[in-house]
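FORM 7B: Structural annotation worksheet

SECTION A. Query
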Amino acid sequence: MTVFVLDTNVISDIVAPAPNPNVLAQLASHQLDTLCLCEAVDYEVRLGYLKTRAMTRLSAYQQLIKPQFQWVRIIEIDWQQAAQFWADAANQGKALSDVDLIVAAVAQRIGGIMVSADVDFDHLPVKRENWRTLKV
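SECTION B. Predicted structure
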């Protein structure tokens, strides 16, 4: 069984008015795997929908999407690892978002694969899959 940690853009691909068919197919093909969300992604999803006043999408996320995934809490060691990721990236001239850094730290801690279309994760020592382009 594989553990996947979903990024915000995956949730957006699911909740979009026209959901991404590749992402939906990947979700269906990974039913026996562990699919995870963490607090940082939840925060980013919520702020995006609140900012754009997309209350129907926020409701769909909260009631239909979020409960389907395993919840992974952020713990102190994740913050420490995110800080190290930031320092390493900054020393290479890369500026990464704090949310990406903490989600990557969570993925590393639990031995998960990041699921994201965001290539910024490629600058971090975590494995990433892009379900938008990956075929089942």
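SECTION C. Observations
Residues 76-91 form the longest helix (16 residues). The domain at 3-129 is CATH 3.40.50.1010 (Rossmann fold).

SECTION D. Sign-off
Analyst initials: ____
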